[in-house]
């Protein structure tokens, strides 16, 4: 089963390496990984996507919690959450296909973020299903290059991930 795990960590040298090493050292696979600072520049959030049975995931969560620079670990499996991915895709933009590319990008609420005489670079965000559908439709027009983030996630509603008994942004916490 696929799990999206959010890990609050101290924003220090070597933390990413230790977290990745935990996974590889135990034979666990990281399907995607996104890391960025929070509102507090001394804290980062890692969004890790991994798969495994409940015993494996429980082991991963316990091992993550034991790492020194880890502040909080949350498995979104138990929460109501929203998640999004992003894809940047460079496509052939020949004169005969430009209108079709524009139409598809608009339908999927994407943006054209770069234009050259022969290519368009498109930005699309959404869930995995939406991105796969877009890529399936745009592929016949000629994908030249593609990069993708993997999901990032956040709890729905008032729920926030707490840091040392207070929310990261200084707001109210719902549990």
Question: What does this molecule look like?
Answer:
The chain is of the alpha+beta class. 26% of the residues lie in helices and 41% in strands. Strand 10 (162-163) and strand 11 form a beta hairpin. The radius of gyration is 19 Å and the shape is elongated. The strands form three sheets. Strands 5, 6, 7, 8 and 9 form a five-stranded antiparallel beta sheet that branches. A four-stranded antiparallel beta sheet has the order 2-3-1-4, with helices on one face. Residues 170-175 have low confidence and may be disordered.
Short description:
This protein has helices at 15-25, 54-66, 98-107, 128-138; strands at 2-10, 30-37, 43-51, 70-75, 81-92, 111-115, 119-126, 143-148, 152-155, 162-163, 166-167. With 175 residues, it is an alpha+beta fold.
């Amino acid at each position: 089963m696929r799990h999206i795990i959010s890990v609050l960590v101290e924003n220090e040298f070597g933390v990413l390496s230790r977290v990745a090493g935990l996974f590889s050292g135990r034979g666990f696979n990281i399907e995607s990984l996104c890391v960025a600072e929070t509102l507090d520049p001394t804290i980062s959030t890692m969004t890790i996507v991994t798969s495994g049975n409940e015993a494996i995931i429980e082991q991963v969560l316990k091992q993550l919690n034991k790492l020194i620079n880890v502040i909080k670990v949350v498995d979104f499996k138990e929460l109501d959450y929203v998640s999004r991915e992003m894809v940047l895709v460079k496509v052939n933009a020949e004169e005969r296909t430009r209108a079709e590319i524009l139409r598809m990008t608009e339908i999927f609420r994407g943006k054209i973020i770069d234009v050259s005489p022969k290519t368009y670079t498109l930005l699309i965000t959404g869930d995995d299903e939406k991105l796969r559908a877009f890529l399936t439709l745009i592929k016949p027009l000629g994908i030249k290059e593609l990069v993708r983030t993997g999901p990032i996630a956040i709890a729905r509603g008032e729920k926030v991930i707490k840091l040392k008994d207070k929310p990261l942004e200084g707001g109210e916490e719902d549990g």
